[in-house]
User: What shape does this take?
Amino acid sequence: MITLTINEKDITLEKPVTVLEAARKAGIKIPTLCHHEALKPFGGCRLCIVEVERMPRLQTACTLLAADGMVVKTESDTISKVRRGILEFLLINHPLDCPYCDKAGECELQDLVNKYGPTTGRFKEEKRKVPESHKDQIFTRNMERCVVCTRCVRMCSDVQGASAISIIGRGSHSKMEPFSTESFKCEYCGNCLTVCPVGAILSRLYIHSFRPWQIDKEVETLCSYCGVGCSLVAQVRDDSIKRVIPKIGLGLNKGLLCSRGRFGYEYINSAERLKMPLVRKNGELKESTWSEALSIVAEKMLEIKNTHGGPAIAGLASPRCSNEDNYVFQKFMRLACGTNNIDSISRTGFAAAQKYFEDLLGQGITANIIEGLRNSETILVLGGDPSAINPVLGLAIREAARRGAKITVLGNAKGLERFKTFQVVPSVFKEADVLEALLTEIYNTRGLRNENPALDRGIRTLCEKAAAKSDMQEVRDLRNILLGSASTAVVLGMDLLQRSDGHKALFAVAGLIYLLEARLYLLSEKPNEQGVIDTGCAPDLLPGGRPLGIHEFRRKFEAAWDGVIPEKEGLTLLEIINDASEKRIKALYIMGENPVFNLPDKPFVRGALKSLDFIVVQDIFLTETAELADVVLPALGWTERTGTYTNLERRIQLQHKAVETPSGMEDWKIISEISSKMGYRMNYSDSKDVMAEIAEVSPLYRDLTYQEISKGNCLWPYNGEPLRGEISEAPAAVNITKEYKDDFYLAVEKPLFHSGTLSRRAPALLKIYPEPALKVGMETAKKLELKDGDRVQFFTQYGSKEAFVSTDESIKDNRVYYSNNFKNNGVLHLMSFNMDNVTKAPGLEGCEVRIKKI
Amino acid sequence: MFNDSVLNEIEGIKAKYPDRRSALLPSLYIAQREFGWLSHEAMQYVAKTLNLPEAEVRGTSSFYAMFKHQPIGRHLIQLCTNVSCMILGAERLADMLVQKYGLQPNSTSPDGRFSLVIMECIGACGTAPAMLVNTDFHDNLTEKRIEEILEGYK
Assistant: This one.
């Protein structure tokens, strides 16, 4: 216990903190410029000087640890004089261009000079001249305004880990510059913008478009891009989003954002937004009215239900929609349409993996807190680059690395290049073999845990069948790292399971986390992949993860809902597509998803959708899928409606409405109106009503209200409670005997700057990453004699495509990557798929690629 | 690019320190020795060799006047004009370099043979005036002596 006195106020501290922190906790303000909550103490600007009794000189409060009995004064004539002097020095070279500087009004330097002076300057010399740089697409850099506090540089290197900028030069010539001197060519997280106290770095998205005091309102909400669920603040003026900023201390991201979250918001203002319902008449989609469109949907769905039965109808929910939307969606499908054929695009990855792991290890096995990654001793990263898929989760891994954790990577992970301690790069499609070898090594050393009989049996069968010892030194090294670690986390990307035998890799991962008692994190590309499952948008699950197959659960929900739930489990995503192509499914209701573009084998998926009698698509854009629909219903987008989202760690958070839009309706509202028209009445006045019902029927959300969620920290681990009963055997592995030789393989790039097909309408992200390139590793480039900017044509057995080459040192195997985010410029149509019968995820096939220079 | 023996030299430096950042300054010296000056490509190459961020390499190297970020002549003359050297005629020597060799301070002679930097005290006040040519130290300079000395640097 430490007691000190600051400005004659006694302050008691539980643990030693700096004088600055102690003062702030007691509500005493000490001015700072180089200090920032998100950064380590620096002691550079000297503005936080304080007088401490019995200490000879003025001390910097930001670096001085509070000690027992200390007597501190934060304001005095001497202190004010020194602060004024420091500010006078800072202003020697400052251009004092506040009238047209965007920062004016929220500038820390301006505020400090306003408080302490000086009112005049004594320096007659010329100020240094550094022209403002507009060479970067996103950032404007004005180095005349820079006070060299180095917050941006420290943010970039110590927190973001991108280390893209540095202070160049010395003394009064110092300035911040990216390596290339002009364009930043960085991760464009924009966290440097957050910390810059002056107008030295500004965003070109809104430069000179408003002054900070002209903001009408600030709405705390959630990012709409990935499964991390970062909190952010949307600043609104004239009913449009002017700027997205983080708030230090708000949400799990604690003030950090990534490029998508910070700069990707403009898509909601796109001119291509759907405004009116579209109805197909004489083969063409024509604008219609809401009442006509909704009636057509209700009539047609009823007709198909009555003629072909409920199971002839299927629905795709959306991990981009809220829990409320998805809950109402599955209820509509089950009770109004009479089908359990409900799934989502998540089945291609997250939902498949999540189900597989929960089946083996119990519910809640993936509910781990991102913050916990920071304290892990060892992190094993598989099947994707966390820093691109879930950038803010990637930051936790980078911080763990800085704290000395061992970051081990299997495969390629660009964002961890400078942070990994160990990497194994299996040959293409041999990932499962390497994981099995690793599991065998660990089994041979540590043995079984004897807590999960089915898994124990599965591991024993697998490992005893395998050769007693792996001949790969790398695997043994990796085993030693993992066995020497007291707390291990496994971060799993979905590339690993998109194989026809993807479940083999998943089983090995399950074995590893079980034997090592490791925590598992599933990377999640969309914001509500967990929520989709939790609200019951799965063919085998009711809300709250309750298995449909258990009679008591079904009975309970039927009573609550006053309707009949079909008994038979429904079809998963690929089964639905398949049954559609074979005309067993007649109608498909798609909410906020674009399967035509986001599934492999486009001709097949397209054909399957075309052979349907009736397709309804709810979306905010006319997507490739919506173009095939019979009725297209315009929904509301991010910041246009309120709803809850469940992130990958199962944290339930609120996304708030910030702006009014004249067109479009909430997804849940559209569905409930159709449902009522079809004879199953739904009466919700707003999304809060929906949440109230979810909280009532689902034990997972018991007593959960918006008020409760707003307080933060609504985390729902299921305590690993197994609800599905004992599994008797680990699923038998399917062995694929196909040999892969020295070919090159096409893979889907998961870029940092894009996400699904949403970001293709975000102008800022398109400036950063305007068109896809074929990303090749250095070895591949050497073998094929390719260099950056070369134009190539690449062929798979399903087609070909032209692209520029971009070499990438982080690609260490024979894969070449191409993005599937751009309009008319995807890559999945060049592949086919073969469903993994265990996980029901698509195994990508036909990825062998030939590359020809043109 | 570095040849194998230079790469080995850098590996040797890296092995001395627990943190590879510590190897940055010596590696930059080596790069300057090998390439003459530190171009963007050279800094990029050092960054790659040490697995350090490029911006950090550039930031560090830009702090030190001893690292050259523009091409310089084959030989670098660093002439002191601080108090002792100045009293003993260093400024005359600087003028002579301009007249005789076309060597303005902070520039390179037209034939690319020499670059001249006027530097602060090099601690040779007792035997002033003094200069460095590359890493060789020369003192008790006169105009004639400079000419003789520079004959040795072609």
